[in-house]
Amino acid sequence: MVIKNIEISTIVRLVKHFVSVTVLLTFAACGSTNFPFNPIDKNKTYKPTTIAIISGGEQDAHVKLAEFITKELSERSSFKVMPQKEIAKRIPDYPPTVAMRTDIKEDDEKPVWFSPSEKAKLGAIQAKLKVDYIFVVWNRFVRRVTVSGQYGGGTTTDYVYPAGNLIEYPGGKVVASTMSVAGSDLSPMALFRDADYYIIDALKEASEDIADEFIDVTNSKKR
Q1: N- to C-terminal Cα separation, the chain
Q2: How far apart are the C-alpha atoms of 127 and 170, rounded to whole Å?
Q3: Is the peptide bond prior to 96 cis by the omega test (within 30 degrees of 0)?
Q4: Does residue 99 surpass a pLDDT of 60?
Q5: What b/e sequence results for 175-203 when a residue is b if at least 16 CB atoms lie within 10 Å of its CB, and e otherwise?
Q6: What is the pLDDT of residues 120-146, one digit of tens each?
Q7: Residue 37 pLDDT more than 60?
Q8: I need a surface site. Which of 19, 24, 96, 111 has the fewest CB within 10 A?
């Protein structure tokens, strides 16, 4: 199963490898925003109640991201996380297609990713799931970047760019957002692995980062 590329114009974050000064400066000049889970209101308190992580589309990268975040929060947070299988039982034709806005800027720390016209669709999903929070997530696109080393060699990395919004009910208020990036370096074993192996690995890393921040912000570490 090959992850599909989702084309939205963006930039690549600073690569954490030993590279030439020229390349390093190039990447530094166009660094990417990385907020795995950013609350809209820093003073808000959260009750660890019920939550469902919703894939914002049927593309494989969206679905995998929702699955991985569900797993991380189920294992590590005190929220009651609805399994993806249960969501699929309650929502016909899951996952839905939740349209993303195309006017979000890369330096927007607290974006609302879904179009205003999609609020009713998300409200209808919440009514079927009967959870206190919906966390709708997308992967904006994937990108493979090769960087040459100063003395030869180099690295190739698959990057993913997750996006998301945590929505609180009743009311459907957006209370947090995600605009992040994570990467997985290809190894010599890449020739013997599935084409999407490192993309999936990057999605797992991104999910861990999102869960880390989510648990910290919501003070919901499982005891």
Answers
A1: 36
A2: 10
A3: no
A4: yes
A5: bbbbbbbbbbebeeeeeeeeebbbbbbbb
A6: 999 999 999 999 999 999 999 999 898
A7: yes
A8: 24
Amino acid letter, residue 120? A
Angle at 1 (CA atoms; ends 67, 164), nearest 5 degrees: 35
Distances (CA, A) of 183 to 22, 154, 188: 21, 15, 16
| Distance between CA atoms of residues 1 and 60, nearest Å | 8
Query: Residue 179: CA atoms inside 13 Å, Cβ hemisphere, count?
Result: 21
User: Quick one: pLDDT at residue 127?
Assistant: 97
Query: Are 69 and 210 in contact, with CB atoms under 8 Å apart?
Result: yes
The strand pair at 173-179 and 50-55 is best described as: unpaired
Q: What is the 3-state secondary structure (H, E, C) of the chain?
A: CCCCCCCCCCCCCCCCCCCCHHHHHHHHHCCCCCEEEEECCCCCCCCCCEEEEEECCCCHHHHHHHHHHHHHHHHHECCEECCHHHHHHHCCCCCCCCCECCCCCCCCCCCCCECHHHHHHHHHHHHHHCCCEEEEEEEEEEEEEEEECECECEEEEEEEEEEEEEEECCCCEEEEEEECCEEEECCHHHHHCCCCHHHHHHHHHHHHHHHHHHHHHHCCECC
- Closest Cα to residue 125, out of 95, 83, 101? 95
Residues, the chain: 223
Token readout for 1 is: 């199963």
